Amino acid sequence: MLRSEELATLEREIVSCRRCPRLVAWREQVAREKRASFKDEVYWGRPVPGFGDPEAGVVVLGLAPAAHGANRTGRFFTGDRSGDFLFASLHRTGFASKPVSRSKGDGLRLTGLWISAAVRCAPPQNRPTPDERDACLPYAARELELLDAKVVVCLGAFAWDAALRMLEKRPKPKFAHGAECRVGPLLLLGCYHPSQQNTFTGVLTPEMLDTILKRALELSGESTREADDPVG
């Protein structure tokens, strides 16, 4: 089976998951009640699969879908402020075909990069429990097994800790922006999360994020190219 087909099979499994009752209830409640500015839209309201280039050398690992972002659009970082910041940087560094992502059908393509998350359902207060994290991490682990990734960019301390837990790295190195940690064939690269709390206060600037992504490209040994068979 081709890698893209295996990823598509995993995507179908992720989308149908109902393992965590609290997360199922919350994601579906948000999809019903909606935010006023999106009242005429049909929310995704399901677990969010990873997406990008099946031949990616770099994986960006986030925390979880935003309630009115990916939980609405069905694609990580699509349709929210964090995504606006991230995709602009991905475009500047050659990973994304467009600087903005508004919907799954907007034609955006990723080259040399895959976007994933530790948790696939939008959690209340953006805080998954340890049990919810551990129930969901096998999906990210399977993605990494299928992809030929060399570098995982961990957006925030939660993603950093989740990746170390998933890869069974002990003792755990402390998270920091720009931190690097080798775990077998993978190199973890720490990056502040592009949340509004960080980007509005200057904790994370566009230049800082660009530097991390350029470093990821360098470490992966990839050159950005046109993806032949994108997923998502």
Descriptive report:
The chain is 38% helix and 12% strand. The protein is of the alpha/beta class. It has one domain (3-220): Uracil-DNA Glycosylase, subunit E, CATH 3.40.470. The protein has a 6-stranded mixed sheet with strand order 1-3-2-4-6-5, with helices on both faces. Helix 1 packs antiparallel against helix 5 and helix 4 packs across helix 8 (206-220). It is globular and about 45 Å long. The two termini are 18 Å apart.
Specify the biggest β-sheet: 6 strands, mixed
CATH topology title: Uracil-DNA Glycosylase, subunit E
Structural class label: alpha/beta
Mean pLDDT: 94
Query: What is the CATH architecture term?
Result: 3-Layer(aba) Sandwich
Low-confidence stretches: 223-232
Question: What is the CATH class?
Answer: Alpha Beta
Radius of gyration: 16 Å
How would you sum up this structure in a few lines?
With 232 residues, the chain is an alpha/beta fold. The protein is built from eight helices and six strands.
